[in-house]
Amino acid sequence: MRSSHGAAVAQQSEGRNPPSAPALKGSRTQAEANRQYFREAYRTGEHGWEQSEASPHVLRLLRRVHEAVPGERLLDLGCGEGRHCLIAARLGFETVGVDYEPLAVERARRLASSAGQGEIAFCVGDALSLPFAVASFDVVVDYGCLHHQRKADWPTYKANLLRVLRPRGFYVLSVFSPRFRLFRGSSRRWHLAHGAYRRCFTREEMVRLWESDFSFLDLVEERGKDRGMWHALLQRRALATKDEKP
Ligand SMILES: C[S@@+](CC[C@H](N)C(=O)[O-])C[C@H]1O[C@@H](n2cnc3c(N)ncnc32)[C@H](O)[C@@H]1O
């Protein structure tokens, strides 16, 4: 599928064809197992999410954001091979992609440069310890990174997000919903596949996690045979000032 401005958009999401990775061993922590999974995924190139085509849902939400804040600074958190960085930069955002897997970042740089989009900045970094200054972004995108973070790490993820995203900035988030095939028929909300942690979110959890700091502008559930993803557009609330009336 091609969008009106020429960006390729995809109907698929991750999980179709995960690579084989060694089973969890003794003292390895879940965080290490996740990294091992992603390292292997990018080494083999056989991961289950799209490599170059953007999600049409992310494209739709980014267009909405672009109408509100054209050309401002955007961070793609867990950018992988950079497919959403490409469409963000084409829309006119000054775009930065960050991922903790060096091979993904290397591939993202190569793809961007061969697409003539060498202006996109990519760096290696952890979503739980972001290497960026306070309020340095107007928009943050996360497609498929948060749902690999354990619940115990959500406060750290959130603190990092709130540090780098300016007040009234936008957050475009895509995460598994309970309709994703791994979670169907199970009351458990997490799943380990090939060593990697995956978490699905109910609508109530999404609201509970974000409502204290964000307003929901859009929340849709993508449904399909094997599919189930939430796509959300949130806007960070303004900071309360001491002069503000209750
Ligand atoms: C399912 S992939 C999605 C990649 C990309 N967002 C996309 O849509 O193609 C999840 C990505 O998140 C990255 N990731 C997972 N946990 C991370 C963390 N704590 N810090 C930075 N990147 C992380 C992985 O390396 C992987 O590239």
Structural commentary:
- The protein is α/β, with parallel strands linked by helices.
- It has a single domain (about 30-235), classed as Rossmann fold.
- The protein is about 30% helix and about 25% strand.
- The protein contains six helices and nine strands.
- A seven-stranded mixed sheet has the order 3-2-1-4-5-9-8, with helices on both faces. Strands 6-7 form a two-stranded antiparallel sheet.
- Strand 2 (about 95-100), helix 4 (about 100-115) and strand 3 form a beta-alpha-beta unit.
- Helix 2 packs parallel to helix 3 (about 85-90).
- The protein starts with about 30 loop residues before the first helix and ends in a 10-residue tail after the last strand.
- The model is unreliable at about 1-25 (pLDDT under 50).
- The structure holds S-adenosylmethionine.
- S-adenosylmethionine binds near residues 78, 104, 127, 128 and 144.
Key features?
246 residues; alpha/beta; two-stranded antiparallel sheet; 6 helices; globular; binds S-adenosylmethionine
Q: Give the N-terminus to C-terminus distance in angstroms.
A: 49 Å
Which CATH architecture? Answer: 3-Layer(aba) Sandwich
Structural class: alpha/beta
Mean pLDDT: 87
Secondary structure layout plus pairing:
Blueprint lengths: L29 H15 L11 H13 L4 E5 L5 H9 L2 E6 L2 H13 L6 E4 L12 E7 L10 H11 E12 L13 E4 L2 E4 L3 H8 L3 E10 L4 E9 L10
Parallel strand pairs: 1-2, 1-4, 2-3, 4-5
Antiparallel strand pairs: 5-9, 6-7, 8-9
Helix pairs in contact: 2-3
